[in-house]
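Ligand: zinc ion. Inputs:
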Amino acid sequence: MRCPVCDSRAKDITPSGYRGLSVRCIVDGDYDIDRQCHEALLSLDPSGRHTVLNAAILTVAPGSRPRITAATFVRCRLEIRSAHRTPPYADATKWPTRSLGEANDRNR
Ligand SMILES: [Zn+2]
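Predicted complex:
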């Protein structure tokens, strides 16, 4: 199989009973992907996939495999957006441009 994160050669090491995918990648090491996150992960570009995997690695308990879960995506959302800002948001000085009052007006 191919690593869902980096597309390198990888091995499926999913233990029986885990409803997801466990991957052993020569680049990324071992990690788990919950089934409901698999498609969302593949829909990201390579940089976004690594952002998600890194977030899973940062919160893993010692001795456990990092696991990409829905919570990992929630935690990453802002980071992914800021890493992939497209113009005009690429310029950080233009973000955000509206004052709080204007934002409230828009929501009325
Ligand atoms: Zn990989």
